[in-house]
């Protein structure tokens, strides 16, 4: 990676083009600080570029990232994180980076996600999504509390004209930073179809038998709710509603040729900021009460419920065991606390570690995905059970989604409480941890609650 300190975008591009010797191409990025902007407006204005957009917001940290277009794609029909990691490193090795800031999300940045299980056959539902993808946007906006930055990234080669490229970028920037008209549609759900509810409960029964016979300890099973909407949902409006209704979640969107995977997940998989590593154990669920007394009662019961504590503990033990070799120290509290969302509450245990020098966020994702909050325990047994018995193509649901940058920062969440928007239709996904004491009816109710965050913002 070549770090440069050129004054302007054009001089950076000029330097880059001049540095190219043969037929190779090089990634060039230029970061500048800008006045605070509304990230959702920027996302909406991105429609003018007629390319794929991506959105990430860690509402709790007041950190938002918007990616528009694609300067480079690392897409794979496998989810081999080592290969992706190598490609990312190779790309950065040759990149020319002009970035005077330390803020996470500046410099070369990628946003992406992957399929929950690359071995599960893909159905037409997810046909627009590859098994894994890291997209290096042409325009990346980062809003970190009150500070805003924009990074342009382009691939250049020897014959490119730096001033032409600079002109193109600055013209586009003007459009992106000018006020966009968001037409707020009042969409409604016209029809909904729960996909095979009866069979799903049978599969839960089958999983509990499998567990009782000692073949596994926990298996997470998910199901789908298919919606017809009165009109096509405006992604910006859906994001705005999610940010308002789920302020303690990660709000994300990833567009792919007209389809959009979108959600508000409370579950962090991993955050790396320099050598600091954070992860989250989130499993075990109860509804919110209608008033404070009832809410506290449900919370108290959840904290003392054997079945939910068991669901939770598998996640804690697995995360602890998985990151041990990657960290020089790990801190995990002994007992979970409650994590409250608008429609439900969870058992929550935070994980803090110091990542050893030789490891990056890729190594952590590789170790952690899928945790027993989405797969089960033991992992291989649970994932094969899901592959063979679940009535759903999970696609990117339940898998890591997030971003990383050229300064070893990044964050990935587990893509739950999510849905796939397809024109005026949508599929929502929700799952639950099945253990030996699981009751199919209760698990069914639990998944119904987990549809609510997405269902509500779609007018259902
Ligand atoms: C699989 C989902 O939730 C997981 C995360 C938190 C609590 C869970 C539970 O209590 O079953 C699930 O493991 C989902 O929301 O689709
Ligand atoms: Mg549960």
TrEMBL record:
Function description: Catalyzes the conversion of chorismate to isochorismate.
Binding site for Mg(2+): 311, 446
Boundaries of every Chorismate-utilising enzyme C-terminal domain copy: 198-450
Pfam (any one): Chorismate_bind
Names of required cofactors: Mg(2+)
Catalytic residues, chain numbering: 218, 267
E.C. numbers: 5.4.4.2
InterPro entries named in the record: ADC_synthase, Chorismate_C, IsoChor_synthase, MenF
Keywords, comma-separated and alphabetical: Isomerase, Magnesium, Menaquinone biosynthesis, Metal-binding
Pathway assignment: Quinol/quinone metabolism; 1,4-dihydroxy-2-naphthoate biosynthesis; 1,4-dihydroxy-2-naphthoate from chorismate: step 1/7; Quinol/quinone metabolism; menaquinone biosynthesis
Family: Belongs to the isochorismate synthase family.
Keyword Nucleotide-binding (UniProt): no
Presence of keyword Chloroplast: no
Gene Ontology MF: a single term: isochorismate synthase activity
Reactions accelerated catalytically: chorismate = isochorismate
Designated name of the protein: Isochorismate synthase MenF
Top-tier EC class: isomerase
């Amino acid at each position: 990676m070549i770090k440069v300190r050129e004054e302007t975008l054009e001089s950076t591009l000029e330097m880059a083009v001049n540095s190219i010797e043969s037929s190779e191409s090089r990634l060039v990025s230029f970061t500048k600080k800008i006045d605070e902007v509304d990230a959702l407006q920027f996302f909406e204005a991105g429609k003018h570029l007629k390319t794929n957009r991506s959105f990430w917001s860690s509402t709790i940290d007041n950190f938002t990232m918007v990616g528009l277009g694609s300067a480079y794609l690392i897409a794979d029909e496998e989810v081999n994180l080592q290969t992706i990691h190598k490609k990312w490193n190779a790309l950065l090795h040759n990149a020319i980076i002009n970035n005077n800031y330390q803020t996470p999300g500046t410099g070369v940045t990628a946003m992406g996600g992957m399929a929950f299980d690359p071995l599960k056959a893909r159905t037409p539902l997810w046909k627009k999504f590859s098994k894994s993808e890291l997209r290096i946007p042409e325009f990346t906006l980062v809003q970190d509390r009150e500070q805003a930055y924009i990074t342009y990234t382009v691939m250049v080669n020897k014959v490119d004209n730096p001033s032409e490229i600079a002109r193109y970028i600055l013209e586009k920037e003007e459009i992106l930073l000018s006020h966009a008209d968001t037409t707020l549609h009042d969409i409604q759900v016209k029809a909904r179809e729960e996909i095979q509810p009866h069979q799903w409960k049978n599969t839960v029964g089958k999983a509990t038998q499998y567990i009782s016979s000692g073949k596994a300890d926990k298996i997470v099973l998910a199901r789908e709710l298919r919606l017809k909407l009165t009109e096509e949902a405006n992604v910006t409006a859906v994001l705005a509603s999610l940010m308002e209704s789920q302020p303690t979640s990660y709000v994300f969107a990833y567009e792919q040729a007209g389809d959009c995977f979108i959600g508000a997940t409370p579950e962090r998989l991993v955050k790396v900021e320099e050598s600091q590593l954070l992860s989250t154990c989130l499993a075990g669920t109860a509804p919110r009460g209608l008033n404070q007394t009832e809410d506290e009662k449900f919370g108290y019961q959840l904290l003392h419920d054997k079945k939910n504590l068991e669901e939770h503990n598998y996640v804690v033990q697995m995360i602890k065991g998985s990151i041990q070799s990657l960290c020089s120290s790990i801190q995990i509290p002994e007992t979970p606390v409650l994590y409250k969302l608008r429609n439900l509450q969870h058992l929550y245990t935070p994980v803090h570690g110091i990542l050893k020098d030789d490891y990056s966020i890729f190594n952590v994702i590789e170790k952690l995905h899928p945790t027993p909050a989405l797969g089960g325990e033991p992992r291989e047994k649970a994932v094969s059970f899901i592959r063979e018995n679940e009535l759903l193509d999970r696609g990117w649901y339940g898998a890591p989604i997030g971003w990383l940058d050229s300064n070893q920062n990044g964050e990935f969440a587990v893509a739950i409480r999510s849905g796939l928007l397809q024109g005026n239709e949508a599929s929502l996904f929700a799952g639950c941890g099945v253990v030996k004491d699981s009751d199919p009816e209760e698990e069914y109710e639990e998944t119904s609650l987990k549809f609510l965050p997405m269902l509500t913002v779609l007018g259902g």
